[in-house]
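Researcher: Please predict.
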Amino acid sequence: MTNSFLMRNPSTLWFLLGLSLFTIVVTALSDAGVGVMSTSFVKTLGKTLCLCLIAVAMDVVWGYCGILSLGHFAFFGIGGYAVGMWLMYARTEGIVLDSFASQTIPPTPQEVTDAIGNQIFGVVGSSEFPAIWAFSDSLILQLLLVVLVPGLLALLFGWLAFRSRVTGVYLSILTQAMTLALALYLFQNDSGLRGNNGLSGLQNIPGFEDTPQSTISLAFFYASALAVALGYVLFAWITSGKMGSVIKAIRDNESRVRFLGYHVESYKLFVFTITAVVAAIAGALYYPQAGIINPAEIAPIASIYLAVWVAIGGRGRLYGAVIGAAFVSLLSSWFTGGGAPAIPLGFYTVQWTDWWLVLLGLSFVAVTLYAPKGIGGLFDYLVRKPS
């Protein structure tokens, strides 16, 4: 069955082969190989893969199903916060237990809990564990929450929106409002997630304090590559065959699909929910590599950037979403990280850290006007170019 699926979708097989080759090359160039690639750049590549995964999810919900969601980065952030809560708790617990080790009388469990709470929430003037931290001491439960919380939120939101037949720009505004509401909630100190400070130090994995960051970064890079591979295959399967035809038909003419007897709302709800869950998994892998997460990371503008990545890469093409996310993400790191040299004009010096967003916006406009199929469309043209 797998062979027949890959034979029907050769682009998926080529993508998996390319991803495998990319993983091998990065391994060879990292400290595990010849050591010419820095640990920070390996982390950048790992984070880029996570962004590619959420871009593919966005492409399925927008490029294939026609739902311009401006809230999928909220699900990405929820996944990051869920894992970050466990990382913060477990790391702080280790510090607290070490501080109590010199005492003759061992601390009570309540004293340990109070000390952990004071360490985590002292920055916002509290020491009490909020209700949403109830399972933060369990990695397994927090990993389940990575899937369950975004899935249930997307299911509830989608059910309310789709059953009311909200479509087009109105649905986009609703998804953006959902993201804004979540971001505003997280900015509050009493949310339990440390407000503006967010969760930091996430790159320090409990139990692996003596493991070099080069090894940890490579492990997360492998995990991110595996997640992209599995996510790509999953979405390639969803968008192929009869299901894919129905989803694309909903995008092109929802009323006609409903007239033919298909339950349009069920298809849209399925796509919206499954892409939300995959976006959360991408976030759960991204933020331990980034080392910090705060509400600004999931502000509505982040979901707009996500739509720009997909548009530049070419929506309606899974590999186009990967290309767009990787291209813009790496280019952004180069421009905003000081890699791009300043351009002196005599009367003014162009600093790319200030002008990168302008350049990105102009690129989006140019692609929309002159290359609506994006970078992925150029690949299609080269492959199908008549002789």
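Model: The longest strand covers residues 199-200.
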